[in-house]
Amino acid sequence: MVPLLLVLLLALILFGAGFAVKVLWWVAVVVLAIWLLGFVMRSVDGSGGRGRWYRW
Which residues contact 51 (CB under 8 A, 6 or more apart)? Predict the structure, then answer.
């Protein structure tokens, strides 16, 4: 009974990890798209140069 429970627990953990990795990939794609849009939509500062769209 214990080996069966261990196998089921391992399968559950691996399924959960696979789902989490898939979600993290989608989050990474969305963040990359927003980051790239930030470069395209940068504002022009007073001297005519491109300003930074982020604050650090």
Answer: 42, 43, 44, 45
C-alpha to C-alpha distance for 42 and 55, rounded to whole angstroms = 13
More confident residue, 43 or 13: 13
Distance CA 23, CA 6 (A): 26
Q: Are residues 42 and 51 in contact, defined by beta-carbon separation less than 8 angstroms?
A: yes
Q: Tokens at residue 54, please? A: 């982020």
Phi (first) and psi of residue 46, to 5 degrees: -60, -30
Q: How far apart are CA 32 and CA 35, in angstroms?
A: 5
The pTM of the full predicted model, rounded to 2 decimals, is 0.55
> Using an 8 Å Cβ cutoff, are 25 and 17 in contact?
no
